[in-house]
Write a structure and sequence with these properties.
This protein is of the alpha+beta class and 632 residues long. Among the domains are: 131-213, PUA domain (Archaeosine Trna-guanine Transglycosylase, Chain: A, domain 4), CATH 2.30.130.10; 229-420, HUPs (Rossmann fold, 3-Layer(aba) Sandwich); 497-626, no CATH class.
Length: 632
């Protein structure tokens, strides 16, 4: 897949001390200059916890024999992981200043360890998973060719197609590592010198290189890494603290920290405290949180002596699921209904004059966040100015800061259970590897699993529900494997408005149209009050002197000229759609300056005594119009 550059990559390694450095400057332990580490962009490296290390070691043992894992990653060595763009989840495994391997999730198969040359050198000659190439084939392999069947001298028994392989050359007892890759034949087929590709070579040793020797490992702790990076970390903390103080002074608004229960929001909270501020902690319980996340928000706030403001989405996700369908990467209605709506309600209640929210957002997380900058306004959340003091930080820097402050507040335990990011347990942005981890470790996933049973098997097993329109890479992968994608469950039809041609009338022009289903006039009479005087007369609703709506969905509109008629038609259509398909998120209530708009029994309602008919509740983004109900 193509590389994604979200910012400068600055990972270096002190070979003498065996520690990573955030920048190319002298090591804080020995004073020596480090070497750069060539990682794949975006290069948002993070620490490998014991869970991650155990997984890598077990995969190495499974693929190359018992003991391969500890030779690859000895105890006491600093190891980093780097998530890279791929079809699902792939992490580079980094230690000793080298990328040792990729650990990648293969759809329909699970995790595989794909060794690179430095990783193979650490393992040495394995007990299984090896193939020896004929000397005559070596030049072509080093030149970018694969190993063909007739070029196989000997191989380990029990190799199956798609198994990971360490490719060797040389005589028995004197083999050298030639490359690494995956088998395309079984051991029996290779032994028969069958034509065709025996091993697809992924990485090769450098031309002219003799024996490939692994660098010796150095036992270090994360305290050592902190010591080596103390100067850089202190400077960046000071810049973040200055940013927070300047923002708070300039904007002169109440200060809060949007807390998600993740590492970035925890680091942001601690930095705001270092700036001398005492913020309120805003936590939105989406109804899809891990119990540990909810506990962490309460625990951290209590330990730091801060006021915790909580808004709960309740059953909003499950209530809106039948209408909107599974949340998707290209249709994240869940965020609006379960997070942004509740936070808007909270801000309207707790900060009626607006709030400065410090948010743990970083440019290395996504292209959207890289382009947003450190200060922004979200059109979905009126009243909030967002600011991120860690916009330029990498995940490694965040973790070093948390390690340095571990006595002040705990991080979410799910990071030490294999997750890189913490959020809703069924987030469509999550890859299949992490969803599978959550499914096995979190009992609450069963409710979602049961709902997915309403969909075809391919949509469940390959996580296709995570798209409204399948990504090109996933579609091509399934096609290559001969997998037919069944049609998903259809969503309820969206409310549609059809209009006829306008006609000349006494007022100027008129237009007749109709909605695709009957309408609830009682509810509409309240919502449409913002567009003008609305009154219900039997089976029809009158809006001002220019619109009439029948319960069966028929509509009549009038205006003096064509452009005005067009504007009124679009405005009425939009208003009715927002009312009829209302998700009850409450985002529109944050735009109401008189307090007339509120959510009542899962729907937005207007208090006629407070409404000044400004129409603000009918403008701005709305889940009902942004994520309609078209079929997947």
């Amino acid at each position: 897949m193509s590389q994604v550059r979200l910012g400068p990559i600055s990972l270096h390694w002190c070979r003498r001390c065996g520690v990573p450095l955030l920048e190319r400057r002298s090591c804080g332990i020995c004073g020596g200059m480090p070497d750069s580490v060539a990682v794949t962009p975006p290069g948002d490296v993070r620490p490998a916890f014991q869970f991650d290390l155990a997984k890598v070691r077990q995969l190495a043992d499974d693929e190359f024999g018992e003991g391969a894992g500890t030779r690859l990653l000895p105890e006491g060595e600093i190891v980093l992981l780097n998530r890279i763009p791929d079809l699902d989840r792939t992490d580079e495994v980094i230690a000793g200043g080298e990328v040792l391997a990729n650990i990648t999730w293969i759809l329909g198969k699970g995790f595989m360890l794909q060794l690179r040359i430095p990783g193979a050198a650490r393992i040495g000659i394995p007990s299984i998973g090896w193939v020896v190439a004929d000397r005559g084939a070596v030049p072509s392999i080093l030149g970018s060719s694969n190993l063909l069947g007739p070029g196989v001298v000997r191989c380990a028994p029990c190799i199956k197609p798609q198994d990971e392989i360490i490719l060797l050359d040389g005589e028995p007892g004197g083999e050298r590592i030639l490359g690494t890759g995956s088998a395309r034949m079984s051991s029996e087929t290779m032994g028969a010198l069958t034509r065709g590709t025996a091993v697809k070579v992924r990485w090769r040793r450098e031309k002219g290189l003799g024996d490939t020797v692994a660098r010796p490992s150095i036992t270090r702790t994360w305290d050592d890494v902190l010591a080596a990076n103390r100067a850089v970390l202190s400077e960046d903390v000071e810049r973040a603290v200055d940013f927070i103080r300047e923002g708070a002074a300039k904007l002169n608004r109440p200060v809060a920290v949007s807390y998600s229960g993740g590492k970035d929001s925890l680091a942001t909270l601690l930095l705001v405290l270092e700036a001398g501020l005492r913020p309120d902690v805003v936590f939105i319980d989406t109804g899809l949180e891990f119990p540990e996340t909810v506990h962490n928000a309460r625990d951290v706030s209590s330990r730091l002596g801060l006021k915790l403001l909580v808004e709960e989405a309740g059953e909003a996700f499950w209530d809106n699921l039948p209408s909107f369908g599974p949340p998707a990467r290209d249709a994240r209605w869940c965020c609006k209904c379960c997070k942004l709506g509740p936070v808007t309600r909270l801000i309207s209640r707790e900060f009626p004059g607006g709030v400065l929210s410090f948010i743990g957002q970083r440019r290395y997380e996504s292209e959207a966040r890289a382009s947003k900058g450190p200060v922004w306004k979200n059109p979905w959340v009126p009243g909030q100015i967002g600011a991120s003091p860690i916009q330029e930080w990498t995940a490694l820097e965040v973790w070093l800061y948390l390690f340095d402050n571990k006595d002040k507040a705990p991080w979410n335990p799910w990071y030490e259970r294999g997750l890189e990011r913490i959020g809703c347990f069924l987030c469509p942005a999550t890859n299949l590897a992490d969803l599978e981890l959550v499914r096995k470790a979190f009992a609450g996933y069963e409710r979602w699993q049961k709902r997915l049973e309403e969909y075809p098997e391919t949509w469940r097993s390959f996580g296709l529900w995570r798209w409204r329109r399948l990504s090109k890479g996933v579609a091509e992968h399934l096609a290559q494997r001969g997998i037919t994608v069944e049609a998903p469950k259809a969503l309820p039809p969206r409310l549609i408005f059809e209009a006829g041609e306008h006609q000349v009338c006494a007022e100027g022009l008129s237009l007749q149209g109709h909605f695709s289903r009957p309408l609830g006039l009682e509810m509409l009479s309240g919502r449409l009050r913002a567009m003008g005087k609305a009154r219900l007369e039997g089976e029809r609703l009158l809006v001002g002197e220019w619109a009439e709506i029948s319960r069966d969905g028929k509509v009549s509109l009038r205006a003096k000229e064509g452009e005005e008629l067009k504007r009124r038609t679009e405005a009425l259509k939009e208003a009715v759609l927002r009312a009829e398909e209302c998700a009850g998120c409450g985002i529109c209530t944050g735009r109401c300056k008189t307090g007339a708009a509120s959510v009542v029994r899962g729907r937005m309602a207007i208090d006629a005594q407070k409404c000044n008919q400004c129409g603000a509740c009918l403008t701005g983004p709305c889940p009902a119009t942004a994520y309609g109900q078209e079929e997947l």
